[in-house]
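task queued by scheduler; priority normal; single chain, no ligands, no partner chains; default sampling; output format set to structure tokens
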Amino acid sequence: MDSYSVLYSTSYRTGLLSSFQRLRSEEKMCDVVLEAGGESFPCHRVLLASSSDYFWALFGDTTAERLAGSVSLPALTPRGLDAILDFLYSGWLSVSPLTLPVVLEAARYLQVETAVSICERFMTDGLSVDNCCFYANLAEHHTLSDALQAANQTIAGEMRTLLEKQRNDLLGLNSQSLMTVFDADEVPGVREVELVKLALDWLDENGPLPFLKSNLLLSRLRFGLVAPSDLASLGQAHRAMATPLIRSQLTRALEYHQLGSAQPIRQSRQTTLRVSPNRVLLMGGGASADWPEQQALAFDPRSRKFSCLSCVLPLRLKSPCVCSVGGFLFVIGGEEVKEGDEDGKKSITVTTSNQVWRYDPRFDGWEKVQSMQERRAQFTCCVVDDLIYAVGGRHTQPDGDTHTSLASVEFYDMALGAWRRGATMPQPLYGHAAAALDNNIYVSGGLPGSRGTVQTNEPEEGRESSKDFLFWDLEGRVWEKRASMSIARFSHRLAAADGFLFALLGMYEPFCDIEQYDPRSDHWTRLRPLLTGSFNYGMVSTASGNLLVFGGRRWSDGQEVIVRSVLEYDTKKDHWREICQLPRPLTGIECTLLPLPD
């Protein structure tokens, strides 16, 4: 058999369409005329039938139109039909925001799916706050799922601007989009009460609707995020709020507001903020180790940007413990720093605190909850099974020259709103680190003290830090000693990530070594050290398993220097890098992850 080749010309199809377009423009060899809106469009039956399922069926063997000289298309506008015919003859679709509705209507009606896809991509690529509601309605009408999803996401993200400047666009939004937006977990910068008012205004604008449909809309709102005073007035603001379903949701929201200390452990979708994933909250740091700031900072790991928060600490606290439960922030113990005036001279007093403050980002408010049983500084706290455990620490005596080390452990039971005693550590300890892993608590290093004794304020360097590593089995309520660290550590950090524990950077270690603990093998492994060590920094473990280190102090040319660096440690790759810098040098930072409204 003779060999042969099959070759393809890319220019032939283009030339063929160009020839058809020329014949159409010159009205030569046209065998059918399409009519729309009083205008006529001479065309070629064979090209139409080969390009559109609608025309293929229209010009079939058994239809009346197969030999008709003209076909009327009253459902289409001349502009829309002309744009689709140009596309069929040339492959180019002319579309603008102004012509999009008629072009899309023609493409759908004539079943030219390629043109429909182009229109959908045009909508998705051109979404903005000015057109998102219009495009959402258009996409919903023509069942364009991708464009509808993108438009709904834009509406949720731009809701604040839409409420302020384009509320009428929202009132004209289709019900499916509005329900999707009310289902969204992120609606930045908008209070829930504003969404409730929008829903009621929308019902007035588009109603009356059957109670089943209004229930479907209103039940997507989160009444637990509305203040009790607003709930009472909203419950009587519209007849749709009086249905049994909505009344029950309002009742549950009011009951939630009355839970008091139990609120953090009684969270539901109805009480969960519509915010971006957790941000890092930085508390209690300052430009001086002796003068902490009350202003809080938030760090967004995605944008790597800082912002100042409205939540200002009620007290000026040095090294408190901070943690979050159920979207609430807890600030526990530490040393309260006050500025006084003695004999005309300014003075600073420091007292150990047992106070506990709770911050609710839903309503931007602080509340003082029951204090710890003991005053604690340089202690640790961990959250396990919705209980906050306070471990060890020390108490500064009123004279300021002596300290009492603590071996005690207590935990805050939010269901009862009270602190209760836990199993005492084998010996008093402060300056240690702790972390929770697999619902158990691990404690590393620190400075041990003698039980029941008062220590003078001798230099810290005169005492020896500990290498001990303790494990508290919460079920058995007993402390166990595990494999010791290779380095004695004080004022360091312990973090859990990916099933391991990481001991980082303390105050007196001669090197900047990091160790990883495997609880399955009870074994420590030395990891890559940080080239320049630091202490008194803030640290948090992110959802990705990486560790972020904020600010702190380090030694430079024999002097302590407060730094601005924000470092990220990749626990999987054992790799350090600086990702950004703090707005200003800060030391003594305490960190936790918390969902925060924008």
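post-processing summary
- The mean pLDDT is 89.
- Residues 279-594 form a domain with the Neuraminidase fold (CATH 2.120.10.80).
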